[in-house]
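Dear colleague,

Thank you for sharing your sequence with our group. We've completed the structure prediction you requested, and as agreed, I am returning the results in plain text so they can be pasted directly into your records. Please verify that the sequence below matches your submission; if there's any discrepancy, let me know and we will rerun it promptly.
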Amino acid sequence: MKFIESETLELKKTTSEIKEAIISIAAILNKHQHGELFFGIKNNGVVIGKNVTEKTIRDVSKSIADNIEPKIYPHISHIQIDGKACIKVRFKGNDIPYFAYGRAYIRVADEDRQLSAKELEKLILGKNKDKLRWDTDICKEAKFADISANKVKSFLKSSGLRHDTVGNALEKLRLISDGKLLNTAVILFAKKPQAFFPNARLRCAVFGTTDTSFTIDMQDFEGDLFSLIEKAEEYILKNIHIGMRLEGLRRIDVPEIDKAAFREAIINAFCHRDYREFDSVNIAVFKDRVEIRSPGLLYGGLTIEAIRTKMVSERRNELIAELLHRVHFIEKWGRGIKLILSKEPDTEFSEVGTKFITTFRRKSYFEGKKTGLVPRTKLGEKGAKSSVKSSVKSSVKILEAIKENKSISAKEIAKNIGLSLRAVEKQLAKLKQDGILKRIGPAKGGYWEVVKK
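Please find the predicted structure tokens below.
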């Protein structure tokens, strides 16, 4: 019988190598959770045998018990190989990481390598990955009455599944555990997911420059993941430029950022985000770019280089990903990044703080008039400037109305100058914030005072 050392087999010629043997056991357990070790065989596979007594077996057992943590209980036996006495140690254990003499090792081919702090952290996280998964946790506060039957019915129809009762459908989709709803069931199908998860939210903003110094628009949306994905897509389309091409006699709209690319990035943001983080998914539309920001860094040891060059994916929320795949929102085999880069090769991926950010360049900024792009709304650069001018004119009219009647109400101002009450209230708040206007006394019975001319 020929023995060859491997990732699950270690050979020692004598028990004087007990320390090295114990390190090998811990290394093999950390890699494969099971293995075998022989005393009486050289590392080249030649059986030389050794003197084996009951005390020898006890000493080996005691050494393993004293120097490996957590404790393992191997099967140690005295066997004959090629007519020579040897000791066989069979061991297994799933309670990784295992430490030998206070240090952690990993098996690489037939060698034992000490784990770095980062590798040890990854091993621990990998062990607890399923326990830490948010999407398979039970939502203790949610009841079946909180689930929208219409949302479940629509999902079943889109995924080609037969309509069933809400309870049966959720059971078949593995969204119930011990009679309780899982987080995934709630964030996908609840009538009001935000009642349970305040971060079931999308925050969007348009900025008039390449930074956040001038805000043109800001909106928040809440709801289930399907509706938030659609809202995010609509918001980007509304606030970027749209070109056109002709197909026969038909005009086809062509966004300056490929729709399939940014939709894939939106879906990835909601699918793979860390729902234990309180923050929301954020969409930021700048003059030169669009950023899609998702709470939570890359998962499972992935790097930006790996996702750009290899078709691999590690899913933080496997159950959510599976359900989005059922309705064809995402690719099964991690082709999303490849799709994005095939449509928008200049896309950038980055990790900043605790966020993963996908950045798309706006062609209207980098290529200018050559693109033939036109704004979907009036909120382009010219729109932003005219918006500022309009705001100034409104402020002047409001101040003139107040000078004529210091006790005038916001409702009366709105009627006099032809603005909505909400617009007037917004301008009044800004004038007060800028120190131009001051309110003396209560809303009723008080009056305005112009502080700055």
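Summary note from our side: Residues 374-385 have pLDDT under 50 and may be disordered.

Kind regards,
the structure core
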